[in-house]
Amino acid sequence: MNVRPEDLEELRALVGDDGVLESEAARFTYEADALTLERGRPDVVVLPRSTDETAALVRWARAHGAPVTARGAGTGLAGGSTPRRGGILLSLNRMDQIVRIDADRMFAWVQAGLVNLELSNRTAAQGLHFAPDPGSQQVSTIGGNVAADAGGPHCLKYGVTHHHVLGMIVVLHDGSVIQLGGEACDAPGVDLASLVAGSEGTLAIITEVCVRLTPLAEAVQTLLADFADVADACRAVSAVIAAGIVPAAMEIMDTTTIGVVEAWLHLGLPADAGGLLLIEVDGAAASLGPQVERIAAIAREHRARTVRTARDAGERAALWRGRKSAFGAYGRTGRGFAVMDGVVPRTRLAEAITGV
Questions:
Q1: How far apart are the C-alpha atoms of 350 and 263, rounded to whole Å?
Q2: Backbone angles phi, psi at 307, to 5 degrees
């Protein structure tokens, strides 16, 4: 696509002067996602503020034969927001409003550019939160979470993003706007919202989402166990599940990850550990004590050197900060690394991790 001055004027007429970025520096900013293995510089960046503006941009692009790539915060790791064919990079970051919260029916309508954590912060006073919590939760957008069907540490118990989507408003390839699903728990018709979730922008551009809100747990307990050998930590994971316990989250950090996180954040993590196992349980306060004791016993049976429980919310937040900052900690090292998700039977987790 060769962007002409008249093209820029037409785009500005659709989204305003400040909604069109064509400088070299701006286009460079949008050429890759968080992994940066795949790059592609857009010819122009546009930032709509509404579904109507998004639809108008798509119609314009179709009429001019211009490729369109939708993007949220750019925290993805799969290249879905990379404009490999140039054209228009359609950034949804300015569409960051909470449209409506219905606490009684436990759902919220939000624009696609709303930051994930912002929704939970806004609904906490009502005893609710948005359960999907990817590692990029503090900066990633809900539209991007839906497009990538993001998970997060707590997906072990609460599921991935599409489990928390009731409906969405999307813009199709021809600029038409449709609603998929709705506010009901089981909307009539084919569940096309679940089809679009995880499609990385290839089927439609998500502009608004109706998300399910989940009650905050009455109590939460977070444990940290450290092991001399990461394989023992992996075996402990399998044993906890085999014991019939379903924690809210279980996360492992190997010795290299511990080292880069500790060098950055100075959280007091044991630098000589071969592996750390972070386990969180939540639910009724009366039920957590026995679960914590059983998990700690299983960890010790698998040669955990120490097992400690976070004393308060601040210590719990610090432990999770260590885990959720791991990607950024690796990025600070300037070394080449690759990230991928794998699916491994839990009984062979130790074999997989030590093999890697």
A1: 26
A2: -135, 120
CATH number belonging to domain 219-355? 3.30.70.2190
Per-domain residue ranges of the chain:
5-91, 98-215, 219-355
| Architecture of domain 98-215 in this structure | 2-Layer Sandwich (3.30)
Residue 225's identity, in one-letter code, is A
Contacts of 133 (CB under 8 A, 6+ apart): 116, 152, 153, 154
Question: Consecutive sets of 10 residues in the chain, 356 residues long: mean pLDDT of each?
Answer: 91 97 95 83 97 98 96 89 94 97 98 98 97 93 97 94 97 97 86 95 97 97 97 96 94 94 93 96 94 97 96 91 87 77 90 91
pTM over 0.85: yes
User: Per-residue DSSP letters for 126-137?
Assistant: GTEE-----TTT
Here the tokens at position 189 are 């018709």
How far is 350 from 356, CA to CA, in rounded Å? 10
- 356 exposure class (CB count in 10 Å sphere: 0-12, 13-18, 19+): exposed
Residues for the chain: how many in total?
A: 356
Give the CATH number of domain 5-91: 3.30.43.10
Which spans in the chain are helix H? 5-15, 24-29, 51-63, 116-123, 142-148, 155-158, 192-196, 230-242, 255-265, 285-301, 313-324, 326-333, 349-355
